What we know:
By secondary structure, the protein is of the alpha+beta class. Helix content is 13%, strand content 30%. The protein has helices at residues 74-87, 132-139, 161-170, and strands spanning 63-69, 94-98, 101-108, 111-118, 123-128, 144-147, 174-176, 190-193, 202-209, 214-221, 224-231, 235-237. A hairpin with a 2-residue loop joins strand 10 (214-221) and strand 11. The longest helix has 14 residues, at 74-87. The N and C termini lie far apart (142 Å). The model is unreliable at 1-5, 7-32 and 40-59 (pLDDT under 50).
Amino acid sequence: MVIHVEPENAGQGLGMTEELPNPESRTPGSGKDGEPPPEPPSDQPASSEGPADAAPSKSANKSWYVVKVQSGREESIKESIERRVKIEGLEDYFGQIIIPIEKVVEMRGGKRVDRERKLYPGYLMVEVEYNDRILYLFRETSGVGDFVGGSLNHAPPPMAAHEVERMLGRQGEQIPGISHGKPKFDRGDRVKVKDGTFAGMEGEVKELLEAKGLVRVELTIFGRPVPVELEYWQVEHS
């Protein structure tokens, strides 16, 4: 009896090839043995490099400052500054400009008269990021003086928080008035403001505007003398 034994590599060299798995049977992107590759961690921090990084916001750097301007031109100077900011593309450094006013209700000749009155004639309150570009823009605008408290080599101090709150809170506030009478004080008298935005402050009478029923008092505001026009009834001898 003869027993035939097949060699282990009988299939080699006879055109027989190892059967390969069908590529279409694997899931696209799968790993070994059809298993899906591990998912990347979802909490992986994004790269801090590259141009896609957002620029830091400049709004946090804005503060309120007081700027001296030519009295009587506050509105036109405000418009000129706002226009130049847009032309020169400095919106990122600019917030807003306010001309502080209050509305006064008076009785004249038996009739009710409403009018607006500037609280700080010759001054603007500006919200900006103080830097060389903003400083140059203001200095090159006709009618603009300096930032109050600043000098050639020193930046101006921003307004205190309570000053900003008082200014914004009283902006456009309506206060009652009375018919005009004769003032009870003369030029040079020391008076105290008893009502309105400047209540409690003291100053010197600089001028009586009898035709308007106003008195011009010099008060110390932002560390420097500022002329303020008030109704007769708003002041009293100190």
